[in-house]
Amino acid sequence: MRKLVIGAAMALALAACDQAATQPEGTTEEGAMTGTPFEKLADGREVTKWDLRGADGSGPIIMDLGATILSLQAPDMAGEMADVTFGFDTAAPYLTDSPYFGAVVGRYANRIKEGKFSLDGKDYTLAINNEPNTLHGGKVGFDKRVWKGEPVTTADGKGVKFTLVSPDGEEGYPGEVTVSTTYVWTADHKLIVDFDATTTANTPFNIAQHSYWNLAGANTAKTVLDHTLQINADKYTPVTKNLIPTGELPPVEGTPFDFRTAKPIGRDIGQSNEQLTFGGGFDHNWVLNGSGMRVAAVLVDPTSGRRMTVSTDQPGLQFYSGNFLDGKVTGKGGNAYPYRSAVALETQYFPDSPNQTGFPDATLRPGKPFHSRTIYAFDTVATN
Ligand code: GLA
């Protein structure tokens, strides 16, 4: 009898262990995601992270600070996973040292000339954080706010929806904006990013995902100059020395900006071309061909065969070749990220649209909710 009782108790204990082992961290018993505590910031804010990885270990881990992608595991041709995006091991450096690694940037992604614009006959002045301009929303942009995360389940997979309220007057912008970013990771290795927003007053609005990609793996410390890139754009927006568009939309044909056919990023980056001197390489907006959901860019690492295809319904794509990385920022695993060791591919409205009458109108208006989608699809391609 005694033996039986002990046996039953052991069985129960084992069953409990089993349950703990099969219930992944950050989920409820029913499998719904909850997020897990990540870090308490010095200012008292609690940061939570959400693990969207699938059964094969592929996928992102995302935190509510900046709705930031912390890591993204993608397989190479042999099925070997690597984290292909830059970031930090802890949350605090994202407030102090980060050139927008993995973050969602807004209320206006990219630059607004000298932080000034007029709307409906009224002049506005924004916080200047990138002399002499406003960059990525100002001093405290969406990337430095803690968003509210909640689990979502869609036909495509499991995900997390982050919501933020940007108050009227924040960083100088008019109107209270309620914005959400929803990330879903699919079984066939697509990261679906949906942006939604509403406002109480007309305001410039431009939102972008600002991940830094190195498809050889974020810890390889290799440059991305041998990655090949194709951009579906016949035109681009040249800039002045302060990286503000001139307003012209010249053809890329015959310039280093011609990525219509895939080529290594490093092939023309050293060409003598005034545009390449302003940002120290590629740091420009391409005018995407067509409209609606279509492929914007294809990035391939020829060594691992990893390929990332970016599709979007947005009009523009900022391709930034990591020219301001200089090995001084120490990221995940103690890696000092070197010069041009990652690229950002930011789907967006064009920079400085509030001051450019010839650009698509980036005004968010009451009663006209904003929705946009960008998909980062990962697979592999045989290269020689
Ligand atoms: C954007 C800009 C770049 C640079 C980075 C952050 O991509 O276009 O000029 O400011 O952000 O370092």
TrEMBL record:
Binding site for beta-D-galactose: N110, R111, H210, S211, Y212, D283
UniProt keyword annotation of Isomerase present: yes
Alphabetically ordered keywords of this record: Carbohydrate metabolism, Isomerase, Signal
Signal peptide residues on this chain, from the entry's feature table: 1-20
Any one GO molecular-function label of the UniProt entry: aldose 1-epimerase activity
Catalysed reactions, semicolon-separated: alpha-D-glucose = beta-D-glucose
Catalytic class of the enzyme: isomerase
Pathway assignment: Carbohydrate metabolism; hexose metabolism
GO cellular component: cytoplasm
GO biological process terms on file: galactose catabolic process via UDP-galactose, Leloir pathway; glucose metabolic process
Source organism superkingdom: Bacteria
Active site: H210 (proton donor), E346 (proton acceptor)
One Pfam entry name: Aldose_epim
E.C. no: 5.1.3.3
InterPro entries in UniProt: Aldose_1-epimerase (IPR015443), Aldose_1/G6P_1-epimerase (IPR008183), Gal_mutarotase_sf_dom (IPR011013), Galactose_mutarotase-like (IPR047215), GH-type_carb-bd (IPR014718)
Similarity field: Belongs to the aldose epimerase family.
Protein name per the record: Aldose 1-epimerase
Record organism: Tsuneonella dongtanensis
Encoding gene, per UniProt annotation: mro
